């Protein structure tokens, strides 16, 4: 039984879509992609930039219309990235990936690693994954409000690496969540596990974010720390949002 026909899967038409971006140059490094946002996430990170996508009921079943729009973009896009929310929360994801591949697009995924078993099933349908590593595994519950979430992310990383699918790890940072010691340890932990491409994404302030998520100072993280972290990886970058 393959990922597209798993008993845990649903038809593509049942996907709960929270929105989409027709063209993006930043959601899949080096590729021009459309981004499809799926509703639903089991974690409750206080800094979430898409809180309207936390509940699956907030998505709409509008894949047929979106499929038509993607078909008109064949030849203009390199691929399609499924983001969220947590896209693995949607049982229709395997069918969506299969349909997108059938259109001739490469397939990408943004995931926090909340569902290692579901990730394993869709890896054969993926060309690239952006895996969100929030912090060191023991510290995850302080961010996600869910016990065991760090172990799930760690398992997802191991499955992704074993698959041979291209990937990068990224961490969303804010001084209220990460101090210099944590960031140093996190980089070393990822490097020890063989991660070669890593990015820091600085948390963008917004009206939906409560205190203590104030704007980040221009000199944070310190340039010396950035240089130390960069030395662990083949490719490292800091993204301001």
TrEMBL record:
Its cofactor is [4Fe-4S] cluster. Gene3D superfamilies: Aldolase class I. Residues 28-241 form the Radical SAM core domain. Signal peptide: none annotated. Pfam families: Radical_SAM (PF04055). It comes from the Bacteria. PANTHER family: GLYCYL-RADICAL ENZYME ACTIVATING ENZYME YJJW-RELATED, PYRUVATE FORMATE-LYASE-ACTIVATING ENZYME. This is Anaerobic ribonucleoside-triphosphate reductase activating protein.
